[in-house]
Amino acid sequence: MTDVAILGELAYWQQTGIRVGVGLAAVLLVAGTLVYVHLFKLVSFMQSRLGPMEAGPFGSLQLLAEVGKFLQKEDIFPRKADRFVFAAAPFVVLMSTFLLVVVVPGGPDAWFINSELGIYLAMAVSSVSVIGILMAGWGSASKYSLLGGLRATGQLIAYELPLILAVMGVVIQAETMNMQGIVQAQADGEIFGWGGIGNPYILTQFVAFVIFMIAMQAELTQTPFDMPIAESELVTGYMTEYSGMRFLLFFIGEFATAGVFSAIASVLFLGGWWAPIPGLGFDDNVWNLLGPLVLVTKVVVLTFIIFWARFSLPRFREDQLQQLAWKVLIPLSLANIVVTAVLKIVF
Amino acid sequence: MSRLSSTDTPVEGETEVVESDEARKALLAKIQTEFGDAVVGSHLAPGDDLWVRVDRSAWAAAGAYLKTGLGFEYFNFLSAIDWKPSPFGRDMDAQVDLSLGHDEASEIDMAIEQGVAGGDTRFQVFARVNDIVNGRGVTLKADVPDDDLSIDSWVPVYSGANWHERECWEMFGISFEGHPGLRHIYLPAGFEGNPLRKDYPLLARRLKPWPGIVDVEQMPGDDDPADAAETTEEAE
Amino acid sequence: MTAISDREQLGYIAAQAADARVNVEIETEGMTLNIGPQHPATHGTLRIVARLDGEQVIAADPIMGYMHRGYEKLAEVRTYPQVTTLINRIDWVGSFANEVPFILAAEKLMDVEAPPRAAWIRTILFEMSRIANISLFLGDMGLQVGAVTPAFFAFRDREHVLNQIEAATGGRFHPNFDRIGGLKDDLPAGWIAETKRAMKKIRSFCDEIEGLLQGNEIFEARCRGIGVIPADVGLSYGLSGANIRASGVNWDTRRDNPCGLVHSELDWKVWTHPDGDSFARFWVRLQEVRESTKMVDQLCDGLPSGPVMAKVPRIIKVPAGEAYVETENPLGVMGYYVVSKGDLTPYRVKIRSASFNNISITPWLLKGVYVPDIVTILGSLYFILGDIDR
Prior knowledge:
The complex is a heterotrimer of chains A (about 350), B (about 240) and C (about 400). Chain A is mainly alpha-helical. Chain A has one domain (about 75-345). Chain A is built from 13 helices and no strands. In chain A, helix 2 (about 10-45) crosses helix 11 and helix 4 packs antiparallel against helix 5. Chain B has a domain at about 15-85 and about 115-195: Beta Polymerase, domain 2 (2-Layer Sandwich). Helix content of chain B is about 25%, strand content about 20%. Chain B has helices spanning about 15-35, 60-70, 95-100, 160-170, 205, and strands at about 40-45, 50-55, 75-80, 125-130, 135-145, 150, 175. In chain B, the strands form two sheets. In chain B, strands 1-2-5-4-3 form a five-stranded mixed β-sheet. Chain B has a two-stranded parallel ribbon with strand order 6-7. The longest helix of chain B is centred in the first third of the chain and has 23 residues, at about 15-35. Chain C has one domain (about 70-385): Orthogonal Bundle (Cytochrome-c3 Hydrogenase, chain B). In chain C, about 50% of the residues lie in helices and about 10% in strands. Chain C has helices at about 1-25, 70-75, 80-85, 95-110, 115-145, 150-170, 190-215, 215-225, 230-235, 240-245, 255, 280-300, 355-360, 360-365, 370-380, 385-390; strands at about 30-35, 45-55, 55-65, 180, 180-185, 320-330, 330-340, 350. In chain C, strands 1-2-3 form a three-stranded antiparallel β-sheet. In chain C, strands 6-7-8 form a three-stranded antiparallel β-sheet. In chain C, a hairpin with a 2-residue loop joins strand 4 (about 180) and strand 5. In chain C, helix 3 (about 80-85) packs antiparallel against helix 4 and helix 4 (about 95-110) runs antiparallel to helix 5. The chains are: A mainly alpha (about 350), B alpha/beta (about 240), C alpha+beta (about 400). Chains in contact: A-C, B-C. At the B-C interface, strand 3, helix 3 and helix 4 of B face helix 2, helix 9, strand 6, strand 7 and strand 8 of C.
């Protein structure tokens, strides 16, 4: 508990400063890693090309070059745009991401907030991005943007439901909405009396996990659910009119949200920052350093699935996408809740 | 068969020629009996192709008869020809080409001389339809008089004629009666003139003469590229 | 009594007025969406003005001409050998195939026949340009429905074919290799073996596309039943190539009306599909590429020896006459109606390009579909803009 002691000696504003700095780093570094590892390299490998190779060793500094490029670009406002709404939209989207990251614990003491309503809070603030996207679609005063924005709204609202319902199964099993509690429940769990690897809920809640991943893919508007962006129909949907810095914010938002959602998924289903390493107790201080690394590893694995699907699948049509949500995912997740609840009472 | 061919002609082609020749003759006879005097000209290339020139009044009926009566369901294309030679003569061609071709651009022969299946007027509309079951095509032609550049539309018969007639209208100025919307298809809305008429100058060519030259690259087996200039020489 | 009925009357009028007001308020105005001329879905500068009700298309009107180059007019002032340079640019992803029907039409008028070796090599290159063209389609179709990776695979494997075309003709995109009476040159040494290797790669590419796209449920959901063209409508619009064969019409100019090319001596099959939807068009094209690779293999095996150029005059003057020759090009039937007056230059050339007819069906076909289906349908009809605008 040494670092708690250190934190305890700091003033409240100092603690807040550290948490904000770490939070920023957690969002941006993870997003950058994902862009480099997945978007640049993994996808290039899948598409039998090299990807960026010039900037830095194996193109590892490409991301910085890209950011520099975007920052230099002119910030263009369409003539008929609703200037305030247009300008504010990317920040609203990014804000939702930052609000999400605060609930993710990185270790027994490495957390931003340890709310009893952790996952509830996460699900609530994740919807804020809808407002940002709708703002972008409306504010751009472009027909493509408007279509994209409306598609996004319909889609995000439809997939919010299976997302939340999938979480319900986990909450019932863990008997808590506290993220830390969910990690602990999985670490302490036993599989038919064998506690070697705890009980990651991907085993017992596999249906919920699959639903969560699908709904997450839709929430992130990644292919096959990228109707709002759909570059072959709507140019780039709600982002069509954005350029320079604001486009970069959307871009960061997209990948950071992918990272954060994966982090939430790994907390819910893969045991979060905890890993079955013999000789380490749940509250060991070393987890505060090791935990974030374990978490990031799990995040990379989960985002790999996201990008794998993104770059190999075609996209749905709007009505097919809604059908999948309302006719398949929601009934399935409701059934999962019922089954989970019954088994919870039986055992 | 081929005058200049260096190879032997496939023998089995001969029988096919006679066979499809008969088929085309029968086809022509059918069209002639159906339309009588409205068929004002025809040309039959044995084993190859059939041209039928109908009167302007029978144009739409001929299309309908070919489609429903004779099974020519496939619409291939529709276009027009301006038979009046360009008043600019050959001065738009490269001088090198002209001298090589012994084509002295002395005076312009403005005589109208129609092609296959004859004709009476400067403009002719022609269209091609196919019978895909028997693999045959027919080219229909119709004269369009200068004082009334219009002809019945084929759109009610062949939906595909729509765009072709729009193109023909803007390129030749021939209007199609009964077309659902004759508007520009390639050219901007306010364009004046009909570019594919022969008296419409090719402005780019008039402003900057073409530096072209007849294909004088060395042919395989050619010994001396120098005699490329000799026009009557035939390469090996 | 009368008072009550007046009241009913007034109530009825009020209700009607309220309904009307609600209707006016709810009724949306519709939106005109301008797709193109610069838009990722139209590969080229085709513009589609779509009138939308929500996401449903009420009416769609394609507008082209942004790339009209006036080849029919230009051909009138160019000598016959010079015309091939122009018409190479009509369908620029399968360029060699553009030259063939024009050269065949000129040969027909001149009564010249290319030597057998030339005809065989012509057919090889003709089929290879089909592979180069349609393999691009196979990747692009994925891109249109949102899968990025097939496009990269297409560009990767198309390169093998383009390399072979370049090795033989010197031009990757615009070979300009066909001559009246034969070909410019013979094949380079070792070309046959290399071509067969390329064909093997294309076949494995087809398998890959089949696994990536054709078997994909989302792809099927996006394409099956979308943009259905009944055979009779397709015929009257003059659709050709895979578009008409996907509607169940068993018609292939290569088989039914062979003209100068040697397809009749090969063992191959014309693929058709009964459905007539976007998926059928994709499927037929996929089979066509496979069939073409088999054809190229057979052609490479049976290539006769001999000269590649017939005896033709140095200065080509085409005797007066009219000839129409059409071949089954990658995009569909392409034909040239050549009118000659015995001059160095053609008197009139009517270019019957496949995409012009294929796209002319879009106002009929796009009525009532959803915006995402526009790209599926346009993608599956497969046009090259140069082939529309000429």
